[in-house]
Design goal:
five-stranded antiparallel sheet, seven-stranded mixed sheet, DUF229, alpha+beta, 19 helices, disordered N terminus
């Protein structure tokens, strides 16, 4: 059965201090923990229980009128100026159409090398011979190019192209992976938002490349870091931090190098690796974490993006240079298996509509990969970390679901599909069963010895998508916390109910306690008070089997609440669970900020970034 949910408007703000009304008094209503706000009892048909278990993900209409009234499309991104040079296969050369009319006086390039995750160093200047028109530059993926003109002006350009590393090329391969693994990831892009913003790219993936599109792929946390932790290590963020603390502002925090990144396994197997994530300031392992001491992959795009800021650099677009770098990696190391990960942040993160400016560029990229046979030995994953977090539609039920249903497609060469029809059929079936980044991790490990599974941790959360997932799979099975599960049933409840007031009280207390735990936030950040309660929901049994389990002794009521605080007008969502026996209300997982905080936490942003959603500087 397929459920279709479009959206549900917010409940009215029945308490609003901005209109001069008295702020809600959370202590004014007596708190009775004996039963849930909504009593869940009905007749159980035990004969239907076995077939009714499992997560049922709603189907969303990406183009519903309510959504489309909040959607704009950007024009294709065109950067001004022109490029005078190119850099491929270590050859730095003058473009063929550059002549005396351009009044170029001199050109030189400086290789960009990693110094640390925070800064780079420039190598020796390499002068481009304008007569010979080419200069060889070895050992550098990235160049900073200075073009000087006869009128005294100059411009700066950048190049990104794989310069093969001899040690990597000579690594002995000890695996039987039939395909390379390439990942193109986009920040905050739901499956529905991908269809709205990139219709040409979506059509090409679906129709021309026959990609497998997932309809029930979900998130394991609010933002990018939990998603990439699961994808790249097979472990949750909490598990990794428990193993080796790496969160800025936390005691004994160190680098993330000791985490079990897949790059380590790939290197041991002789596979070449690449990782490139633009917007290094807010990188997945750098914004709230300490980053890497040593370069994690053989080729590391962060080195370039520390030098480049902005969507354009003269005639070059940032996202197209990213794509060019990935393509260069796919062309490199002939005969050797490769793993590449590209994360597009700036194009997707600045605004909800800007992504549409890249539609033509993505189409050109995928067509070039197909036409040049670069997909013939590759499993190509196109994906996102999560859906939009701050769009206007985030206030609706559709927006909440979109945040929890990021885009995912997998593209395989035709010969692979013919050779392994059962595995492909299983994956197609799995597109409608709840899955997560943990499963993608297991799928990649499976491919390393495909069809053998000797590299897959069978005791781990993730399950290979090449094999059938259980029909009755739940969010818990997939490693998805309840507050991010897209297939729970939520019953709206009156925001004046005592349980709602108690939940908000506990959530607000939780935030304020977090702010006083660190000396800097205790000193520099406001304590928050309640301004408005927007809405509240109670988790309901999603099927008769859930109800059966509930009636066998489950004494927990789960509530999802949304409220606004003052000062600062922060908007927060959280899941709280009440034990009806003990009469205790507790925060489950974390309280999420669901509107933009801008520069509100500027006084602590570099020192205690984990507190950014909560801190309003005094």
């Amino acid at each position: 059965m397929e459920y279709v949910i479009v959206f549900q408007s917010q409940h009215p703000k029945i308490v609003n201090s901005t209109k001069g009304e008295e702020k809600p008094n959370l202590d004014a209503i007596s708190f009775d923990a004996g039963t849930c706000a909504v009593v869940t009892t009905f007749h159980i048909n035990e004969s239907h229980m076995a077939d009714s278990r499992g997560c049922k993900v709603p189907s969303l209409d990406p183009f519903h009128p309510y959504v489309m009234q909040h959607v704009n499309h950007a024009k294709p991104l065109r950067c001004k100026g022109r490029l005078f040079t190119e850099y491929e296969n270590s050859d730095f050369r003058l473009l063929d159409d550059v002549n005396e009319e351009h009044q170029v006086a001199s050109i030189f390039a400086e290789p960009i090398h990693r110094n640390s995750d925070l800064n780079v160093k420039l190598g020796e200047k390499k002068i481009l011979n304008l007569t010979n028109r080419v200069t060889r530059i070895n050992g550098a993926d990235f160049l900073k190019v200075t073009v000087r003109f006869k009128n005294g002006k100059e411009q700066t350009d950048y190049h990104a192209s794989i310069s093969e590393i001899l040690d990597v090329a000579q690594r002995k391969e000890t695996h039987s992976a039939p395909l390379n693994i390439m990942i193109l990831a986009m920040d905050r892009t739901s499956a529905a938002h991908f269809q709205r913003m990139l219709p040409k790219t979506y059509a090409l993936l679906r129709d021309e490349l026959d990609s497998i599109m997932f309809k029930s792929y979900s998130i394991v946390g609010e933002n990018t870091t939990p998603a990439l932790s699961a994808l790249m290590t097979g472990k949750s963020l909490d598990e990794n931090c428990e193993f080796r603390e790496a969160r800025k502002g936390f005691k004994n925090a160190g680098f993330v190098d000791e985490w079990p990144f897949i790059f380590k396994d790939l290197k041991d197997l002789g596979i070449a690796t690449m990782w490139s994530e633009d917007q290094p300031r807010i990188g997945a392992f750098h914004l709230r974490l300490k980053g890497f001491k040593d370069q994690p992959s053989d080729h590391y795009g962060r080195t370039l993006w520390l030098e480049w800021e902005g969507l354009c650099k003269n005639s070059q677009t940032q996202y197209e240079l990213q794509l060019k770098y990935l393509k260069s990696f796919m062309e490199s190391y002939p005969g050797k298996r490769k793993f590449g990960f590209l994360f597009l942040s700036d194009l997707c993160h600045r605004s909800a509509s800007l992504l549409s400016a890249g539609d033509d560029g993505f189409v050109a990229f995928f067509k070039s990969l197909k036409n040049e046979s670069l997909l013939n030995e590759t499993m190509f994953i196109t994906m996102s970390d999560h859906g939009p977090r701050y769009m206007e539609i985030r206030k609706s039920s559709q927006g909440k679901l979109e945040h929890r249903l990021p885009f995912l497609s997998l593209t395989f060469p035709p010969w692979f599909k013919r050779k392994y029809p059962e595995h492909i059929a299983a994956m197609v079936k799995n597109t409608r069963i709840i899955s997560s980044p943990f499963d993608l991790y297991a799928t990649m490990k499976h491919l390393l010895a495909f069809p053998d599974k000797r590299f897959v941790d069978t005791a781990g959360i993730g399950k290979s998508l090449f094999e059938p997932l259980p029909e009755g799979r739940t969010c818990t099975d997939a490693g998805i916390p309840d507050n991010y599960c897209p297939c729970l049933r939520w019953q709206p409840i009156d925001i004046s109910h005592p349980h709602v007031h108690e939940a908000v009280k506990v959530a607000l207390s939780h935030i304020n306690k977090l702010l006083v735990t660190h000396p800097m936030t205790d000193k520099l950040c406001h304590q928050l008070e309640l301004k408005t309660i927007f809405e509240a929901y109670q988790k309901m049994p999603s099927d008769e089997a859930d109800m059966f389990l509930s009636e066998q002794g489950n004494n927990t009521c789960s509530y999802q609440i949304k409220f606004q605080t003052t000062p600062g007008d922060g908007l927060f969502e959280g899941l709280l669970k009440m034990n009806t026996t003990a009469g205790e209300m507790k925060v489950y997982n974390e309280i999420d900020r669901v509107n933009m905080y801008g520069d509100q936490p500027k006084c602590i942003v570099n020192h205690v970034p984990s507190m950014r959603p909560y801190c309003l500087c005094k």
